[in-house]
């Protein structure tokens, strides 16, 4: 099961999950079996009028196991300082567990990936990223989250209202979730200044969006842009040779220009390097050709590599900086930020 936030305010967060893929498949199988029972029942009992009993049994048997009727819910109550996990069927609660403020000693965040082997051999497949929260308490819970932002929202909410510590697992090692705690062994990691992470100005660094540095980052986009230019040029040349007059040649040129320009913008905007800049008490994060986000340095916690994605973590949310760059770079970026952060 994997939780997502369905309601949030200053006093409580409600997370909900209606079951995983196994529950869904199980429900489909039971529904098929139920349909078969109904079919057999119809032809067996239609002359005697006893169709209703097998019909009711089949419907109840199917619906009882369908995920839509089974709800897993987690309520984090800041007023009563309780975390309540419930399981309900058809709106009737069948299981309830409660963690109180005094029984929660640590909340641990972690992430991992799956399906990387399949993604390596088949470019149409994608690696999946998973995130989880582990509650060191009585009872002890491990809950899957739908995404990093969901996990972060829950953790920061608990930090504000509960007397507990937060930890982040990086490369199977637990770090205290603070500016100093996210350092590698509490030591500063020097900035590499290579093709992946480089200082490009006063209080400004550039981070390649993927592993391999700037050359690999721009190799594929430039190839796609050149392909688009050559294809458009070939089609224009061919239409001119064959005397294609349904669309005026000038309009064809305009369409080709719009196509190439639009595709080039989308490709370049998606692959542009991330830039981090310190400016007048703010951290400016530029991840696209146009536009940037600004975070007050007092709200920035740091940079961390989770599930092979490098994130900037702030109390206002998270920002993805790069994908699949070595963890040493996230330590280096975090160390670069350290002098400006609240410790």
What does this structure look like?
- This protein is α+β, with helices and mostly antiparallel strands and 343 residues long.
- Helix content is 36%, strand content 33%.
- The chain contains seven helices and 18 strands.
- The protein has helices at residues 21-45, 52-65, 116-121, 148-161, 213-241, 249-271, 327-337; strands spanning 4-8, 12-17, 70-77, 82-89, 92-100, 106-114, 128-136, 141-145, 165-170, 173-176, 197-201, 204-207, 274-279, 282-286, 293-296, 300-306, 309-314, 317-323.
- It has a five-stranded antiparallel beta sheet with strand order 1-2-3-4-5, with helices on one face.
- Helix 1 runs antiparallel to helix 2 and helix 5 (213-241) packs antiparallel against helix 6 (249-271).
- It is flat and about 75 Å long.
- Mean pLDDT is 81; it is low at 121-125.
Short description:
With 343 residues, this protein is of the alpha+beta class. The chain is built from 7 helices and 18 strands. Helices cover 36% and strands 33% of the residues.
Number of helices: 7
Q: Quick one: biggest sheet? A: 5 strands, antiparallel
In percent terms, what proportion of residues is strand?
Answer: 25-35%
Q: Supply the helix-strand structural class.
A: alpha+beta
What is the strand tally?
18
* Regions with little confidence, pLDDT below 50 for 5+ residues: 121-125
Q: What's the end-to-end separation, in Å? A: 36 Å
Order of adjacent strands in the largest pleated sheet: 1-2-3-4-5
What integer is the average pLDDT?
81
* Whole-angstrom Rg: 27 Å
What fraction, in percent, of the residue positions are helical?
Answer: 25-40%
List SSEs in N-to-C order: EEHHEEEEHEEHEEEEHHEEEEEEH
* Tertiary shape: flat
């Amino acid at each position: 099961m994997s939780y997502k936030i369905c309601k949030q305010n200053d006093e409580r967060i409600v997370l909900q999950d209606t079951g995983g893929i196994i529950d869904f498949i199980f429900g489909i199988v039971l529904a098929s079996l139920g349909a078969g029972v109904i079919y057999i029942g119809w032809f067996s009992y239609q002359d005697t009028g006893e169709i209703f009993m097998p019909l009711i049994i089949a419907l109840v048997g199917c619906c009882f196991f369908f995920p839509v009727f089974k709800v897993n819910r987690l309520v984090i109550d800041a007023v009563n300082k309780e975390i309540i996990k419930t399981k309900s069927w058809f709106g009737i609660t069948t299981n309830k567990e409660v963690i109180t403020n005094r029984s929660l000693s640590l909340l641990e965040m972690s992430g991992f990936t799956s399906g990387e082997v399949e993604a390596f051999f088949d470019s149409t497949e994608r690696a999946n990223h998973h995130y989880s929260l582990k509650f060191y308490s009585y009872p002890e819970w491990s809950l899957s989250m739908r995404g990093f932002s969901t996990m972060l929202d829950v953790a920061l909410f608990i930090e504000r209202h509960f007397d507990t510590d937060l930890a982040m697992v990086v490369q199977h090692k637990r770090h205290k979730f603070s500016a100093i705690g996210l350092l590698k062994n509490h030591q500063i990691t020097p900035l590499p200044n290579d093709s992946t992470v480089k200082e490009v100005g006063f209080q400004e660094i550039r981070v390649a969006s993927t592993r391999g540095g700037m050359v690999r980052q721009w190799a594929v986009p430039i190839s796609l842009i050149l392909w688009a230019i050559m294809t458009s040029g070939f089609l224009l040349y061919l239409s001119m040779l064959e005397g294609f007059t349904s669309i005026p040649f000038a309009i064809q040129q305009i369409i080709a220009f719009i196509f190439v320009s639009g595709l080039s913008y989308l490709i370049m905007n998606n692959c542009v390097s991330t830039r981090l800049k310190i400016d007048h008490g703010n951290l400016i994060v530029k991840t696209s050709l146009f536009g940037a986000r600004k975070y007050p340095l007092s709200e920035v916690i740091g940079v961390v590599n989770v599930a092979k994605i490098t994130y900037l973590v702030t109390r206002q949310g998270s920002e993805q900086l790069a994908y699949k760059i070595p963890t040493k770079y996230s330590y280096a970026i975090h160390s670069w930020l350290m002098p400006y952060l609240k410790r």
